[in-house]
Write a structure and sequence with these properties.
This protein is α/β, with parallel strands linked by helices. It is 46% helix and 15% strand. The chain has 13 helices and ten strands. The protein has helices at residues 2-12, 29-32, 38-56, 68-71, 74-90, 105-115, 142-155, 171-174, 184-195, 217-226, 244-247, 264-267, 280-305; strands spanning 16-19, 62-66, 94-101, 119-121, 124-126, 133-136, 158-164, 208-212, 232-234, 258-262. An eight-stranded parallel barrel has the order 1-2-3-6-7-8-9-10, surrounded by seven helices. Strands 4-5 form a two-stranded antiparallel sheet. Helix 3 (38-56) runs parallel beside helix 5 and helix 6 runs parallel beside helix 7. The longest helix has 26 residues, at 280-305. It starts with a helix and ends with a helix.
Length: 306
């Protein structure tokens, strides 16, 4: 699956993903005002997402859909989540379900079946949530990761493992120095490399990727050198403070190695002065084009400095 993502990145010249982390509060008033129930809110979110997907589908290779923004609206929200994933797939986008799942044994297998594998009912197979990649938490160790790896191989899917996250307090745990002198994030990075060693595709990257935040440049640079075959999902650009020049260290000399996510910077672009004259979908498209230009320019500058 990583080859499919890289193919789309190269075809569009666009190593970015639009984060459909869509809160009801982010919607334009015209969509919000008629809503009187959770069902109405979920329908409005779905309509918003579909319009954004249609606007950016030829600009970006992927969307990242954060499950928490849908779970808070209950069962109706989960329907909006599932419909958003399916619509993005239908429109030819690579779909990353940001669910940060993990557990052990049969429970992890259930999580994996929901997003990466399938479930069977009376001999008929179903895919509950149509995603190409999911985010997973490595804290439980290898036996909490194995079910996801197994389904990746069976279904040609991928995972992004949390390694160095973009939030300010991530260092409380992730930068802890262990008995062997290595930080926890470097130890997890080494495990990710091991877990993905037998799934390297034709572009030289593994289906087992890493989440590495744009807001921690030094750590990202360390991980890039340590993990040359690992593709990074890079949050933290824009609203969280990460710049294009900061995150350029996440990429290899081949100009590949990562996909940069932006959520509010795209889906809330219509609220900014720059795009105030555009409707929300048009504003999202223009913001995605600006982001593409910003990221690709930074990568060119980084390549010249090497």
């Amino acid at each position: 699956m990583i080859d499919a993502l890289i193919d789309r990145i190269k075809a569009l010249g666009s190593p970015i993903a639009v984060g459909l982390d869509t809160s009801f509060d982010y919607l334009p008033d015209a969509l919000k005002k008629p809503c009187k129930s959770l069902l109405d809110a979920a329908k409005a979110i779905t309509d918003f997402n579909f319009a954004v997907i249609d606007a950016v589908k030829d600009v970006v290779p992927a969307v990242k859909v954060q499950a928490a923004y849908y779970e808070m609206y209950g069962v109706a929200g989960l329907r909006a989540f599932a419909d958003t994933l399916a619509e993005a797939k239908k429109r030819g986008l690579i779909v990353i379900a940001d669910v940060k799942r993990n557990d052990i044994g049969s429970t992890a297998a259930c999580y994996s079946a929901a997003y990466l594998g399938s479930v069977t009912v009376n001999g008929k197979s179903f895919t509950p949530f149509e995603s190409d990649f999911i985010t997973v938490n490595p804290y439980l160790g290898a036996d909490g990761i194995r079910p996801f790896l197994d389904d990746c191989k069976k279904s040609d899917k991928g995972i992004f493992v949390l390694v160095k996250t973009s939030n300010p307090s991530s260092g409380q745990l992730q930068n802890r120095v262990l008995d062997d002198g290595k930080t926890l994030y470097r130890t997890v990075g080494a495990l990710v490399g091991e877990w993905g060693a037998d799934s390297v595709g034709r572009h030289g990257y593994s289906d087992v990727g890493a989440v590495v935040g744009a807001t921690h440049k030094a750590e990202a640079q360390t991980l890039r050198a340590q993990m040359p075959r690992t593709f990074f999902l890079i949050p933290g650009y824009g609203a969280q403070g990460g710049s294009a020049d900061d995150l350029a260290v996440c990429f290899n000399k081949d100009g590949l190695g990562g996909v940069v996510n932006s959520s509010r910077g795209i889906i809330c672009a219509y609220k900014t002065d720059k795009f105030k004259d555009a409707d929300f979908a048009r504003a999202a498209r223009l913001a995605a084009l600006d982001m593409r230009s910003d990221i690709t320019s930074a990568l060119k500058r980084a390549a010249q400095d090497r």
